[in-house]
Design a protein that fits this description.
The structure is a single chain. The protein is of the alpha+beta class. It has a single domain, classed as Glutaredoxin, CATH 3.40.30. It is built from 9 helices and 4 strands; from the N terminus they run βααβααααααββα. It has a 4-stranded mixed sheet with strand order 2-1-3-4. The protein is globular, with a radius of gyration of 16 Å. The two termini are 17 Å apart.
């Protein structure tokens, strides 16, 4: 059974555009998913990337076009300039880690819920009430928003280190069995083919 280490950011628009396709692919192939939320801006700094705001205008413009096209391609709503972005990704990431440790809900739905709140619903995912709503919608206890902060911070930091060691440099990033790497939601079809033994 394959294991997919899923490095993602709760504020990443490309993580949002992945939707829940990873979960569908994993289920199809009997693979397991280890969710690893991280600070993608810190990952950029560690691996030679540049935050969106510091990129050349040509790159910024292309990024917006690509977001628009990918959203249309997948039939997803997106606000290219959301009211609450950038925002602090740590509170939602800590809540995700607490939910992961508690069990009982749908982690794929929670990851997508946070990114959808930011990129389609004009909500600030650094705010407690938004985090609680996302937890509840994914079948978790909303009180998890207030628990496990120390563990969350430690895991969040460790996920960044593990991402660098695993060869990740952006989000979403998928690593199968610690060897095969796929960057971006637009590589999910390749991940599907790899798990099927076709590439």
């Amino acid at each position: 059974m394959a294991q997919i280490d899923y490095y993602f950011a709760t504020v990443s628009p490309f993580t949002y555009l992945a939707g829940t396709r990873l979960e569908e692919i994993a289920k199809k192939h009997g693979a397991t998913i280890k969710y690893k939320p991280l600070d993608v801006i810190a990952l950029f700094a560690r691996t030679g990337g540049t935050p969106p705001k510091d990129r050349h205008p040509n790159r910024q413009e292309y990024r917006l076009q690509e977001l628009r096209r990918q959203a249309a391609k997948n039939g997803m709503q997106i606000n290219l300039k959301p009211a609450f972005w950038p925002t602090n990704p740590a509170p939602s990431s800590y809540a995700f880690i607490a939910a992961q440790n508690s069990g009982g809900g749908d982690l794929g739905a929670l990851a997508h819920g946070f990114t959808r709140a930011c990129w389609a619903e004009e909500k600030d995912i650094a705010q407690d009430e938004v985090i609680r709503d996302c937890l509840t919608a994914a079948g978790f206890d909303p009180k998890l928003a207030d628990s496990g902060l120390l563990t969350g911070a430690e895991t969040y930091s460790r996920n960044l280190e593990e991402a660098v060691e695993a060869g990740a440099f952006g989000a979403p990033f998928y690593v199968v069995d610690e060897t095969e790497r796929f960057w971006g939601q637009d590589r999910l079809d390749d991940l599907d083919l790899f798990l099927a033994g076709k590439i």
